[in-house]
Structures are given as C-alpha cells and as structure tokens.
Specification:
By secondary structure, the protein is α+β, with helices and mostly antiparallel strands. The chain is built from 4 helices and 8 strands, in the order ββββαβαβαββα. 37% of the residues lie in helices and 25% in strands. The N and C termini lie far apart (37 Å).
Length: 167
C-alpha cells in the first residue's frame, strides 16, 4: 500500500465517457472542487474502486466542495469486450451516480506510469485539489488506516481552501 502526502503534480487528462453516455474530460470537469479519482486497471481493481467510492460517498455526500469519480481503464482490454463492460458498469451503477462512473480506452500507459501501478488488481486513488493538482495518492483495498489518511488529506485541502478565500 503506497501513498504520498504532497505530490503536487498535474495528472494526465482522462478523456472518457460517463455511464450516462456523456463525454467527459477529467480533471477539467471537476475544476473548483477537491476531486478523488478512483482508478481501476482490471476487473478486480474496478470492483475495489467501487468499494472506495461507496465509503467516500457516505462520508462526503453533503460536502459541496468534494466530488469523486470512479474510472475504469479499458484500453488494455480487447475492444470487442469494452461495450460489454461499459454496459455492465451502467447497469450496476445507480442512476444518480452514473455521472461519476467513467470509462476510458485511451492513455492507460500514461496513467499506469503516473500512478506508478505495480498491481492492476488494486484500486489507485488520486486526490486532486481544486486546481487539479495531485495532493495525495495511494493504492490498496479499502481499510480504516488508508481511509483515515484520505479523510485527513481532504480536511487539509478544505482548510487550505478556506484560508485562501479569507485572503
């Protein structure tokens, strides 16, 4: 389980499609919000990213400064199966959350390098500040310790945002 508190790198763009069928570019679509990207590079990684999304949704549901996107990286999958996976994601995602369930079949190698992917069966978490800069990242199954680290990172970003608005 790797993580970093203050990376301050700008991630590659994600050009994808939401489960509603809308084209989306991240992090552009979430500009102005603290954004958690939950990346899945395999079926197992995607399922575990979904577990993280459920916990984050519960915790930050009423926080208008926070948003999260689950992103299924499909480029390494044979193209003949991508439609099936997209349909499965759409059908398995509640309508209210489909806008935040994204699939993409581009730039997977760049993302694997950026996220330092060592085990595609794990979800990769990237926390961006309101300007789209990485401020925390980790990979691993949902667990209390990693969840507490994520919570602390979000709270720290929110405090920074509040302090900068006062000046």
């Amino acid at each position: 389980m790797g993580h970093s508190a203050t990376e301050r790198r700008t991630p590659p763009k994600i050009h994808g499609e939401t489960a509603n069928g809308t084209q989306i570019t991240l992090p552009d679509a979430s500009a102005g919000k603290i954004t958690l990207l939950l990346l899945g590079f395999s079926k197992q990684g995607g399922e575990q990213a979904g577990s993280w999304e459920r916990h984050a949704s519960e915790q930050f549901a009423h926080d208008s400064r926070f948003t999260a996107y689950t992103v299924a990286m499909l480029e390494d999958m044979p193209s003949m199966f991508r439609g099936i996976v997209r349909s499965s994601i759409r059908n398995g995602t509640p309508p209210a959350k489909r806008e935040h369930a994204v699939t993409t079949a581009t730039d997977e190698a760049a993302w694997k390098q950026f996220a330092d992917v060592s085990d595609a069966k794990l979800p990769y978490l990237i926390l961006l500040d309101a300007k789209g800069v990485v401020r925390w990242s980790a990979h691993g199954l949902w667990g209390e310790q990693l969840h507490q680290e994520l919570t602390a990172a979000v709270q720290s970003l929110e405090a920074e945002e509040q302090a900068s608005q006062k000046h």
